[in-house]
Write a structure and sequence with these properties.
The complex is a heterodimer. Chain A is of the alpha+beta class. In chain A, α2 crosses α3. Chain B is mainly alpha-helical. Chain B contains 12 helices and 3 strands, in the order βαααββααααααααα. Chain B has helices at 13-16, 22-33, 35-40, 59-72, 76-102, 108-123, 134-145, 148-158, 166-174, 180-207, 213-251, 260-265; strands at residues 8-12, 48-51, 54-58. Classes of the chains: A alpha+beta, B mainly alpha.
């Protein structure tokens, strides 16, 4: 038995799996499939170490600079009706024996996962007893992604491409939507600030904060800071120059469609689900292909037909919901009144705009203690911070809705529910903090309760009350008895809250306590007082 | 803060403050390492300097120190001391910067040394941006007030600086008091204070006679302190960098080459 098969020689579905057979067929058709080797499904587990030595020798011979990718190839995988997409595991691994062995074992184990068995059962096919393993050199992609398309009469009927910088793993795992191209339209959704690439051994040893070189599409090298690394992959922050331009150029889209058409012809399919990568110099690589087993998936923006549904998640910074046209801070405008100001860091020069009554602030930096958040709260303006940087490219005048509690920004107008706060109607007493007696209003409330904090002097507080016309009680949080009960007051214990001194002349204690934020109750609680204690 | 990598957390100001000068990176990294000492008298350093701009912190050290920090932030007496001590740090630094401004070129260095030492302590408070127990507070307030929305509204209202933010303060220094923008700023501040007081009161009453009462008092004080610290720290940092720039210009030095060690070490 051959322990290791060169990828192009795969032809046995049971031993080599459908993916390996498919890739061999595509390579034979002259399509740009990366070289690889295959471990047959029936290889005994005790031979994995020996096979790994051979794999490492092969990797050295082909100069696999950025490690290996180790993928499953099951008999029914990538079929016409069952894809098993994402159900088997794939791993990047450095070219070290222990890492490669662990990855091979993990891929083989994934064939017996409950998810794979459940999918097989739902698809009415027999669950595979084992999987072959494909090993290829990891490709240091500038960009990668998926293309899904349907062909009728030899021409495209429908297609969609999703692209990210680096490898496609964040895209295929559903972490990001990436840049979407759909029938000639391009939409940039939540493209990650990071990009993930397979790393060379020396790069994988570098700690976060150091830099590695990544090549752009044209082969121009850029230094990129490492965010983290693990499992043969390095996550780096995207070079600033990459953020301001599209991932795919029109000619890339055209070449991907051409490749997908040729791939569909080679596998005799009228629909295609293809994973691809582009390396420096614009070189295309076909990583995987199978017939489309489901309708073309739509990203949220394309599915709903317009950009109005696109949304972004940030950090809640100042409460409230507001809608208005966007205005990038620093852009000329007669007034920011009613507009959603989009900004990064704020300096003193921002005051003039923020004091023009903007509807909301959408900041691409910072957290709840950033200067944008603090000034927004001072001014009572809804604010979300920590939003994706590409909001800084949003054209002025884009209708935005900000939710400062949910921490979201969405395009489009929120009409709200049209409700206004009803006038206060209560049989309860409004609680205030000492010494805010001047705020006691005659608005129909049953009375006012002054919360007396431990540091206050009770005699001073009660002395002030005596000279005040409105009925008012005194509240102390906690269970301990009141230090001083003024004449004409009863002491009541309010379970769960504290002790209340309430004027005897008024009678029963209020049925409810409220705290008002402006005219709106921020907190309210029904109370039940126990038997009063009267001053001696 | 970057994700944990091989048991290490990395704080990378080169990335988060790409336009900062080496002196600013030096200030941030030194004050980061010394925050446990500056804010809770804990001698253990928070990580090790890789280079000005980057600090590596063992995950164990991070967890031990932040756990201790969060426990102490629930103690009203500790919080009161923290507020007093950091307020004094700011006053001392401000006074040193006043001395820098008043000193003749040749006499500025001793004042700059004092300002540097002061600012390293003041700048230690920048850890409030990611080392406060916000999730715990959100959970606590949700349990007290009833919903997450009310908890977030309360937390937001409590994060109000004692005096106007540096953006509004700078506007107030240049605008006339009666203009519409100033009136808007002034009335908004009053309303923000009312909102803060209302939500503080709501949280106190919701805690009532339960065990969370002292923690509510502490968190409210910490949130106000954190917002105040961020705003006043920013002003002092701006004044400090200007003072260093003035000194470098007078002495014919390149401000891009100056470090805090230079400023702490040279007294004549």
């Amino acid at each position: 038995m051959n322990a290791l098969i060169v990828g192009r020689q795969c032809e046995d579905l049971a031993k080599h799996g459908a993916k390996a057979v498919q890739l061999a067929r595509l390579a034979a058709a002259g399509l740009p499939v990366p070289d690889g080797v295959v471990i047959p499904a029936d290889l005994p587990a005790d031979q994995i170490a020996t096979v790994t030595d051979k794999i490492l020798a092969w990797a050295a011979a082909i100069r696999a600079q950025y490690g290996l990718i180790i993928r499953s190839s099951a008999p029914a995988e990538d079929g016409n009706h069952t894809s098993f997409a994402g159900l088997y595991s794939s791993f990047f691994a450095a070219t070290r024996s222990r890492d490669v062995q662990a990855a091979i074992r993990a891929v083989r184990m994934s064939s017996s996962s409950p998810t794979v068995r459940a999918y097989a059962q739902a698809s009415q096919i027999e669950a595979p007893s084992g999987v072959a393993v494909i090993v290829q050199a990891a490709i240091r992609a500038y960009s990668a992604g998926v293309l899904a398309g349907q062909i009728r009469d030899g021409t495209w009927h429908d297609w969609q491409i999703e692209a990210v910088h680096g490898v496609a793993a964040p895209l295929t795992s559903g972490q990001v939507s990436g840049e979407v191209h759909h029938l000639g339209r391009a939409l940039m959704l939540d493209v990650l600030a990071d990009l993930v690439v397979p790393g060379a051994p020396q790069e994988l040893r570098l700690p976060p904060g150091e830099r590695i070189t990544v090549d752009d599409r044209d082969g121009y090298p850029e230094r990129a800071k490492i965010r983290t690394s693990a499992g043969g992959l390095v996550t780096v922050f995207r070079p600033p120059t990459w953020k301001s331009r599209p991932i795919l150029l029109p000619q890339d889209v055209a070449r991907l469609l051409e490749l997908a058409m040729a791939t569909a012809e080679a596998i005799k399919a009228e629909s295609i689900d293809m994973e691809w990568a582009i390396t420096r110099g614009g070189e295309l690589h076909l990583l995987q292909a199978r017939p489309l087993t489901r309708p073309i998936p739509r990203s949220p923006a394309t599915a709903r037909g317009s950009a109005t549904s696109a949304g972004w998640q940030g950090i809640p910074a100042s409460p409230g919901v507001a809608t208005g046209p966007s205005l990038q801070l620093g852009h000329p405008a007669q007034s920011a009144a009613g507009m959603v100001v989009v900004c990064g860091n704020l300096g003193p020069d921002a005051a003039i705009v923020l004091l023009q009554h903007p509807a909301a602030i959408a900041a691409t930096t910072g957290g709840p203690l950033s200067h944008a958040a603090i000034v927004a709260r001072e001014l009572g303006i809804p604010c979300v911070t920590g939003l994706p940087k590409h909001l800084g490219n949003l054209p002025d005048g884009t209708a935005l809705t900000i939710d400062g509690i949910a921490g979201t920004v969405s395009t489009g107008i929120s009409t709200g529910d049209g409700r206004t706060d009803p006038p206060l109607r209560t049989n309860g007493a409004v609680v205030l903090t000492w010494p805010t007696l001047a705020d006691i209003e005659d608005d129909g409330r049953a009375g006012t309760v002054i919360l007396v904090e431990p540091e206050a002097d009770w005699k001073s507080v009660t002395g002030s009350l005596a000279s005040h016309g409105n009925p008012a009680g005194l509240l102390q949080l906690g269970r301990r008895p009141l230090p001083f009960l003024p004449s004409g007051y009863d002491e009541h214990y309010l379970p769960g809250i504290g002790r209340l001194a309430w004027p005897v002349a008024i009678g029963a204690v209020p049925s409810e306590l409220l705290v008002l934020d402006g005219k709106t109750p921020a907190w309210r609680r029904v109370i039940e007082a126990d038997q009063p204690r009267r001053a001696d | 803060m970057e994700p944990v990598w091989n048991g290490i957390l990395t704080c990378d100001y080169e990335r988060t403050r790409p336009d900062a000068s080496p002196l600013e990176w030096d200030l941030y990294t030194r004050s980061l390492i010394s925050w446990p000492a500056a804010l809770m008298g804990e001698p253990a350093p928070y990580g090790q300097l890789r280079r000005p701009g980057i600090v590596d912190i063992s995950q164990d050290v991070h967890e031990i120190l932040t756990r201790k920090w969060h426990e102490r932030l629930a103690e009203p007496s500790f919080v009161a001391g923290l507020i007093a001590d950091t307020g004094k740090d700011r006053s001392d630094t401000s006074a040193a910067l006043d001395s820098c401004a008043a000193a003749a070129d040749s006499a500025i260095l001793p004042a700059l040394k004092a300002a540097t030492a002061g600012l390293l302590r003041v700048n230690a408070t920048h850890i409030v941006n990611w080392l406060l127990p916000e999730e715990h507070w959100e959970t606590l307030l949700t349990s007290l007030l009833g919903t997450r929305t009310e908890a977030l509204t309360c937390l937001s209202a409590l994060q109000l600086p004692d005096t106007p933010s540096h953006i509004l303060a700078a506007h107030g220094r240049t605008a006339s008091a009666g203009d519409e923008a100033s009136q808007f700023a002034s009335s908004s501040r009053i309303r923000a204070r009312e909102r803060r007081d209302a939500w503080y009161l709501a949280a106190l009453l919701a805690a009532g006679d339960g065990p969370a009462l002292s923690e509510v008092r502490a968190l409210a004080a910490v949130l106000g302190w954190a917002a105040t610290s961020e705003e006043r720290r920013n002003e002092l940092r701006t004044r400090y960098l200007a003072a260093v720039g003035t000194w470098c210009a007078a002495a014919g030095l390149d401000p891009g080459q100056i470090t805090t060690a230079d400023l702490l070490g040279r007294t004549s």
